Amino acid sequence: MGLISVAQLMKKAEAEKYAVGAFNANNMEIIQAIIEAAEEVKSPVILQASQGALKYAGVDFISGMVKIAAEKATVPVALHLDHGNSFEQNMLCIRHGFSSVMFDGSAFSLEENIRLTNKVIEVARAVGVSVEAELGKIGGTEDDISVDEKDARYTLPKEALYFVEKTQIDLLAVAIGTAHGPYKGGSPKLDLNRLTEIKTLLPNTPIVLHGASGVSDESVRECIARGIRKINIDTDLRQAFVWKMREIMDANPKEIDPRKILGPAKEALKAVVKTKMQLFGCAGKA
Ligand code: G3H
Ligand code: 13P
Ligand code: ZN
């Protein structure tokens, strides 16, 4: 099978009210682990490349490896640009065969975000690539923010409605209290009422949850019940991968075969992906 767009995956997810996992991929082992996990639990899957991944592996290697893996896969696979930061980068990824892109214009003013998102959509639509946008600011867990600041950063439901009317994006990422990276004080408290308000105004727009590593299973289920259809996971994968590498290297300090370290790390990451797919309800949906 070739790559499928995220918008395509969202049709069944919306109809059957589950979320599709979007997992960050940085190297061959991680790509293989995510796709093998999806095949083992029969789930559609989204692999996404962050700014860091593009810098580390390069757009050609990431897209090349994912395309090879998707070609052989027995489940639908999408390749998505995560937090694309410019029109040019979105175009570069489309040219390299990404089936979905994100234009993260959250650093711009609302009107500039709309203008740039529409530029991306015009090209993406013409070639069947789906587009995710972000409203509100999903920060890092290291940012200590006050309650006032929270209100300023979270997605405003009316603004979300205005944005979708002006852009016709395929997916909308919202800020409701999650952050990127490990949470210091356990699972974050999410503004679920805000999510419901957004979904009520935008019944036909799949909503995306970023920073979902470390969010409790209960909160994740609640988010899905209230309209989240794509869930981004990176940190939980990094931890599983690196902790297993460290465990093996500590136990076998003389080991010099990278395959004996990366192989088990790949399996550890795969196990996390399978657990997430069960939780998100996408297992069995391929
Ligand atoms: O978007 C957030 C991801 O966790 C990406 O981080 O750019 O360090 O790969 P990264
Ligand atoms: P986490 O690293 O917190 O899982 O966030 C991933 C993410 O949102 C990628 O866009
Ligand atoms: Zn994110």
Q: Could you walk me through the main structural features you see in this protein, from its secondary elements to its overall organization?
A:
Strands 3-2-1-8-7-6-5-4 form an 8-stranded parallel beta sheet, with helices on both faces. It is built from 12 helices and 8 strands. The two termini are 12 Å apart. The mean pLDDT is 96. The radius of gyration is 18 Å and the shape is globular. The chain is 52% helix and 13% strand. By secondary structure, the protein is of the alpha/beta class. Glyceraldehyde-3-phosphate binds next to helix 3. The site of glyceraldehyde-3-phosphate has 9 residues, from helix 3.
List the helices and strands and how they pair.
Layout: H1 6-16, E1 20-24, H2 28-41, E2 45-49, H3 51-57, H4 59-72, E3 77-81, H5 87-95, E4 100-103, H6 110-126, E5 130-135, H7 147-153, H8 157-167, E6 171-174, H9 192-201, E7 207-209, H10 217-225, E8 228-233, H11 235-251, H12 258-280
Parallel strand pairs: 1-2, 1-8, 2-3, 4-5, 5-6, 6-7, 7-8
Record the strand order, biggest sheet: 3-2-1-8-7-6-5-4
Largest sheet: 8 strands, parallel
Rg estimate, integer Å: 18 Å
Mean pLDDT: 96
Number of strands: 8
Give the overall shape: globular
Q: In percent, how much strand structure appears in the residues? A: 5-15%
The helical percent reads 40-55%
Number of helical segments with 4 or more residues: 12
The string of secondary-structure elements, in order, is HEHEHHEHEHEHHEHEHEHH
End-to-end CA span: 12 Å
- Class from helix and strand fractions: alpha/beta
